[in-house]
Amino acid sequence: MADARDVVLGRIRAALADRPTAAPVPRDYDTSRDVQDVVGLFAERAADYRAVVRRVRPRELAEEIDVSLRARGARRMAAPDDLPAWWRIGEVVWSLDEPGHPLSIRALDRSDGVLTGCAVAIAETGTVVLDAGEAQGRRALTLLPDYHLCVVRADQVVGTVPEALARLSPTSPLTFISGPSATSDIELDRVEGVHGPRNLEILIVN
User: Span 126-146, mean pLDDT?
Assistant: First the structure.
């Protein structure tokens, strides 16, 4: 296979030998827009994607997390090991995913859900972005459990995708979440939970 690839690439290079180098690509597109209320727009768009969205005050966050978990009847929750301790409340057994001792696939699959923070949120698309940073954990942590409770601070919400990308490192493992996992690939029938949680709940703290 390697020899065949080298042959094909060699022929392509030979065919392009007399061609000029690629012209510069203009990048004068808009990178931001005048959004009056980015937090409100994010809440609206995320709800359009069938996420459950609630806005809470900082001092009420722990109580509201407890309310969410009680409403779902959650008893076993997974979380990254650096999740703030005061978020892990209620009559719940918390399993922490540690870098040196990650939770098994079976343990993640048997949990009632996962609680994380996020890296940034995008108002125009209603998208939450994870980058494996603080209070987020590794990608598998938020893809295997059926329920994802995500805490988004108001100062993490930006208007557009370019604004979000400016806050992110291209070398980080980025996960873009726009509502619960769903696909309509087969005869346009919506199927949820194929490649991530079927239930996404977002607590916007402001």
Answer: 94
Separation of alpha carbons 201 and 54, rounded Å: 8
Global pTM value = 0.83
Residue 121, Cβ neighbours under 10 Å: how many? Answer: 27
The answer to the question of residue 26 being in a domain is no
- Amino acid in the structure at residue 185: D
Residue 11 lies in a domain: no
Work out the burial of residue 169: count CB atoms within 10 Å of its CB; fewer than 13 is exposed, 13-18 middle, 19 or more buried. Answer: exposed
* CATH code of the domain covering residue 114: 3.40.50.10420
Total structural domains in the chain?
A: 1
SS3 letters across 142-203: HHCCCEEEEEEEHHHEECCHHHHHHHCCCCCCCEEECCCCEECCCCCCCEECCCCCCEEEEE
Residue 111 lies in a domain: yes
Tokens, residue 78 = 């997974």
Pairwise CA distance, residues 142 & 130, whole Å: 9
R_g (Cα) of the chain, nearest Å: 21
Q: Among the listed ranges 104-108, 116-120, 151-155, 176-180, which one has the minimum average pLDDT value?
A: 176-180
Burial of 27 (0-12, 13-18, 19+ CB in 10 A): exposed
Q: Which range marks the domain in which residue 91 is found?
A: 37-205
DSSP 49: T
